[in-house]
Automatic annotation (TrEMBL):
Lineage: Eukaryota, Viridiplantae, Streptophyta, Embryophyta, Tracheophyta
SUPFAM superfamilies given in the database record: F-box domain
Boundaries of every F-box domain copy: 6-52
Pfam families: F-box-like, TPR_27
Record-given protein name: BnaAnng41160D protein
InterPro entries: At1g67623-like, At2g35280_TPR_dom, F-box-like_dom_sf, F-box_dom
Domain At2g35280-like TPR span(s) in chain numbering: 56-128
Amino acid sequence: MEQFPILSLPPEVQGLVVKRVVHNSFEDLFRLRATCKAMRSLADDEDVYASFDLFKYPWRLNGFRLRYLLRRCYAQGNPSTLYIKGVEYFYRRNMYVEGLDLMKRAADAGFERASYTYAMTSKLWDDDGDHFRGFLRDYVA
């Protein structure tokens, strides 16, 4: 089977391919980074960390790598990181306004878990039902 050299693609397309690979598998990020210097620089792009889904990350790995990953994703406005921080702030640290704001930012970015959690938390917090308009009956059931 003939191989297709990804480096022959335009840089914008290369970035899209890397984002899609990283979104599907965290292990593939490290494999991609190990292939060559060009792939490492593509994998270290800010947009890659903004599109990364932290719920696909193996949380059993602790230490520096996990802290570095969380900080980097949070700095890029990653929706799953915003959601995790929002839930932590709201339910664990009792920082209600900040936590609700982070959950809303994640929900506005299209993160489904954040949309549901934000709607339920807002319903309990301020008893406003406007957050449920975006849910279809099939989605909830």
